[in-house]
Amino acid sequence: MKCMEMLDDIAAYDISILQTGYSNFRNLNSAMHLPADEELSELTQTSIEDLEQYDNWYFIDGDCWYYKEVYRAFVLINELLGEKLSLYMDLPTIRYSLVSKEGKLSGLISKNFKNQSENYAKGISISPELIGYLQKCLIDRNKSISEHTRRQLTSYLIRNFYSALCDRIANTLYAYNSKEPFIMAPLWDYESSFCDSALRDYVDPLIYFPFSYHNCELLANNNDYFKYYLHKIWTFDIKRALQEIAFEHKIVIPSEFYKYYRQFDIERKEVLNEMGLKKELSR
Known about the structure:
Blueprint: H1 3-11, E1 26-27, E2 32-33, H2 38-44, H3 48-53, E3 57-60, E4 63-69, H4 73-88, E5 96-101, E6 104-111, E7 119-122, H5 128-139, H6 147-163, E8 173-176, E9 183-184, H7 213-222, H8 226-234, H9 238-249, H10 255-274, H11 277-280
Parallel strand pairs: 1-5
Antiparallel strand pairs: 2-3, 3-4, 4-6, 5-6, 7-8, 8-9
């Protein structure tokens, strides 16, 4: 059965099916809700307007945490699997904990990841000049940029294409400081991933770099990290990742989910193969 034919079935599952008698979630009922004011805006480097729109910040263990209420198991697994994939691909990422209300699993919380020594901006505000510069850095190894950043950008493109990430457009963040015009900020918001296994015409949501056959040829010939991270994504074991998620968060993931994500992985790698990228690994 094709991936898309399986999606409707698992998308309907309620989040409660993941909870077990051994689950030990953080209790949101004992946390203090933080008002959308100037103090929180400064601490989280978030505008008052955004704080008012997403009024879900809490004070827990001396830090600010953001709460995302989740109703469907598929959404929660996507978020946790997105985090796991980013870590596997050596990328900075949001770190999730599961949370309960009245003893029932209700969603995810994450500690504020913004470093006070850096500034943050939404990707939607990134300048065309910086976009063009970063795109050139991906396909020209002689272009001056931190090798750490070049490596992360390369991994980021491959990671997002594989997972068919179709969210986080306006909310994609990047960081900068007085020395660096671009720093990869932790990735977040993986909800709309792992859905369209046939996706081909993909444009990255941050630097608008099309992951096309032509551009992949340029990357293969001019980027020292492309083959390494292509190999990493090819050897990514999605079943093992789900097993680790279940163990780490003490949840149960139904067999239907394992079947779905395994089929997604197979079909996604078929697309990579049809784009001629499997051959790049043997060059």
